[in-house]
């Protein structure tokens, strides 16, 4: 073996930052890092076995996504979302997704979009029937991602990527039983994803927008009906 081949492979700094980013994002979304948990660059660097540079890059990206909150001269922390925060997140989603619906129908992409949404709806229904609420939640969020992507607007998609991350933060705070209830309340026959997709297919802009608003109103009602707001975790370290 030549000296060159014996040298350890050095991963680029960007790769380390991406790995840290993905892990932290997942830990925040699934609740491993609870609301209120404070993070330290030094502790994270030690935990991941990397320098503070990749940690800092990952943290800044998560702050931009709304999954971490930073204050001057203080550690960053996982946000404790209030009922007002939740309502505001869904207000933004209503504006963004309503614009996407209008764009889809106006551009004549209703049938094409319906086919993609319908595949998602069928998969979500199968997950719900199997009682797999974690998978059902992923299909729920994917439905809306497909909807915005179908608009073809890069700017809508960039804005949506932030609020959908914050939505994941809301959903990550739900227990299994609450997640089950959330899906049942959020998806009655008259306002479920299938109804929205069918109204888009039919080119019914007013109907699709009304169904979307009702869908989000139900979501906000469920997410804000919990006893109190997200409980704050004790400071780390």
From TrEMBL:
Coiled coil: none annotated. The keyword rRNA processing does not apply. Pfam families: FCD (PF07729), GntR (PF00392). Keywords: DNA-binding, Transcription, Transcription regulation. Residues 14-81 form the HTH gntR-type domain. The keyword Transcription applies. PROSITE patterns: HTH_GNTR. This is GntR family transcriptional regulator. It comes from Streptomyces iakyrus. The lineage of its organism: Bacteria, Bacillati, Actinomycetota, Actinomycetes, Kitasatosporales.
